[in-house]
């Protein structure tokens, strides 16, 4: 699943989702605290979409309130005949040259089964693209979480992580284990309930109409016999 070229920014929910194109943010920092977000979506577009080729790109993400970060791929297409030697994405703990350490490296046409998580509150995402192979793209979410007791405005994931409650049932795997997915969103449940109420009302109207006609018919028969 890859994002479209239409940019979907903050949906209006204060602690909701934020989306951006990584290829427009090379060398920049996403400070989740200042943006007042608990999660976001990061898209790397094919160079055809933005006119950029052979683009290596790195950006820093800082989570709010010292929380850890979990990265989950929605879609990925980073592959060359040379494996992960030339085109790849890397996740680092920290971001300075001296202090950063590699969390994981990935290249494939399928999202990895596992997520990538930080131990601290800062991560560096670095994408490397070889000049010959420029069709790479990916789509991922990043989410702030912590372990321990969840507060009242948090959702407790099955894997022991606490994420903001607004991320529950938002159609994205923010927990990293899928436990915040819902079969039906809140809007879906409301729609089904409304539809059921309308159907019941229609049935009640039809039954009342039939009862009224039958009663009127019976009354006319009684009147005819008199
Ligand atoms: Ca979610």
From TrEMBL:
Keywords: Disulfide bond, Membrane, Transmembrane, Transmembrane helix. Signal peptide: none annotated. Pfam families: CUB, Ldl_recept_a. PANTHER family: LOW-DENSITY LIPOPROTEIN RECEPTOR CLASS A DOMAIN-CONTAINING PROTEIN 2 (PTHR24652). The chain crosses the membrane at residues 189-212. This is CUB domain-containing protein. Residues 26-145 form the CUB domain. CDD domains: CUB, LDLa, TM_EGFR-like. InterPro entries: CUB_dom, LDL_receptor-like_sf, LDrepeatLR_classA_rpt, LRAD2/Mig-13-like, Sperma_CUB_dom_sf. Disulfide bonds join 150-162, 157-175.
């Amino acid at each position: 699943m890859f994002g479209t070229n239409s940019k979907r920014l903050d949906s209006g929910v204060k602690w909701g989702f934020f989306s951006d194109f990584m290829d427009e943010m090379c060398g920049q920092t996403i400070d989740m605290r200042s943006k007042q977000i608990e999660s976001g979506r990061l898209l790397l577009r094919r160079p055809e979409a933005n006119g950029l080729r052979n683009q290596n790109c790195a950006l820093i993400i800082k989570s709010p309130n010292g929380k850890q970060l979990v990265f989950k791929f929605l879609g990925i297409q980073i592959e060359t005949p040379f494996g992960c030697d030339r085109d790849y994405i890397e996740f680092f703990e920290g971001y300075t040259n001296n202090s950063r350490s590699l969390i994981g490296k990935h290249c494939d046409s399928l999202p990895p089964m596992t997520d990538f998580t930080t131990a601290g509150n800062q991560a560096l995402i670095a994408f490397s693209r070889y000049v010959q192979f420029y069709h790479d793209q990916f789509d991922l979410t990043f989410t702030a979480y912590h372990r321990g007791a969840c507060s009242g405005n948090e959702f407790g994931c099955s894997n022991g992580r606490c994420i903001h409650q607004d991320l529950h049932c938002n159609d994205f795997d923010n927990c990293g284990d899928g436990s915040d997915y819902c079969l039906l969103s809140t809007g879906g449940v409301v729609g089904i309930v409304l539809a059921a109420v309308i159907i019941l009302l229609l049935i009640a109207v039809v039954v009342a109409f039939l009862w009224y006609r039958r009663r009127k018919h019976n009354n006319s028969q009684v009147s005819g016999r008199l």
